[in-house]
Specification:
This protein is of the alpha/beta class and 329 residues long. It has two domains: 149 residues, Rossmann fold; 144 residues, Response regulator (Rossmann fold). Helix 2 links the parallel strand 1 and strand 2. Helix 2 packs parallel to helix 11 and helix 3 crosses helix 4. The longest helix is centred in the C-terminal third of the chain and has 16 residues. It is elongated, with a radius of gyration of 24 Å. The termini are far apart.
């Protein structure tokens, strides 16, 4: 071994830097501690929003790898919301470091189960639900993202339906009366401004679906499906009924378009779930949820299914296709 190499090795040893070992990115090692994450989904793994996968992917990109520095306690309610309190209690008993869940019923169950464990949620409106003091200063053990459809979105939904249905006069809005009514009120205010009538059809469970679409077929020329966990879990049935009754239908979530629906103008849930992973990452690194502002969703995407349009005999205007973020052909 040459004298020069010996000198380099000696200096490297003294400074604590190895010249022989390959460099390792520290971004892949956010903590030497093995963290515990509790996750509760309201549906089943196959019926959950597609954005959930983006959460797990981004969490791994941030360096949290299951089986290495992360243990995940995962539970699913299988569409039975009454199970959520029991599942949350199970998660709390597992002494997790942070809980992640989505939607209002799950967030309510989480906050009732613990006032100490940090909770990250993606839900409609944590402030309106009484789970946070404000968006900028949540103040408790909960933070995350607020779906909070922006003020102009209900009018945008109606305008899109007018653009694709010539002579449209009446829109049927399929809604769950247990869901916060602000979207229905916003639609009721926006419809007359666009010379439209709005017929609100309530659905409580899957058994109501066929009757709801029959009623829509009799009373309207187009349908708007509003946020509803039950409808999301049964999205293939919903889109099949829309096709059966030949009703042009706009959805609040792109998952319905993937299931054969016509069109969706929706928040980009993949972005939201990735942001939720960043909240979890910050908390696992020591951040206090009370000090993390709740972020409002502002990114929306327009998705159009041309195959469904052809089956319905609808011509989607070029102006919509040019604006669409994704066109399924």
């Amino acid at each position: 071994m040459t004298r020069q190499l010996l000198c380099v090795l000696a200096l490297s040893y003294a400074s604590g830097v190895s010249v022989l070992a390959p460099s390792v990115s520290r971004a892949a090692e956010p903590s030497q501690k093995v963290a515990r994450l509790g996750f509760v989904g309201s549906q089943t793994p196959s019926t959950a929003p597609r954005g959930v996968a983006a959460f797990w992917q981004h969490l791994q990109e941030l360096g949290w790898v299951q089986g290495q520095n992360l243990i995940v306690e995962e539970r699913w309610a299988d569409g039975r919301l009454e199970r959520l309190p029991v599942l949350m209690a199970e998660i709390v008993d597992r002494k997790v470091d942070v809980i992640f869940t989505y939607n209002t019923p799950a967030a309510l169950a989480a906050t009732k189960a613990t006032q100490n464990i940090p909770i990250v949620v993606f839900m409609s409106d944590p402030v309106q639900a009484g789970l946070a003091a404000s968006l900028s200063h949540p103040g408790g053990n909960l933070t995350g993202l607020s779906l909070g459809f922006s003020e102009g979105v209900p009018g945008k939904w109606l305008e899109l339906l007018k653009d694709i249905v010539p002579g449209l006069s009446t829109v049927a809005a399929i809604s769950n009366p247990d869901y916060p009514p602000r979207l229905v009120r916003a639609l009721q205010a926006a419809a007359p401004e666009r010379r439209l009538k709005l017929k609100v059809i309530d659905v409580h469970n899957a058994e109501d679906l066929d009757g709801a679409f029959k009623q829509a077929h009799r009373q309207a020329q187009a349908v708007l499906v509003l946020p509803n966990l039950m409808l999301l879990s049964h999205r293939h049935r919903v889109t099949s009924l829309a096709a059966k009754y030949r009703l042009p239908t706009l959805y609040y979530l792109r998952d319905f378009v993937d299931a054969g629906g016509l069109m969706a103008y929706t928040p980009d849930f993949a972005v939201s779930f990735r942001r939720a992973a960043e909240y979890v990452d910050k908390i696992l690194k020591g951040a206090n949820p009370a000090d993390l502002p709740i972020e409002q969703q502002t990114q929306y995407v327009l998705v159009v299914n041309l195959e469904t349009a052809r089956a319905l005999g609808i011509t989607i205007p070029e102006s919509i296709l040019l604006r669409a973020d994704e066109v399924i052909r």
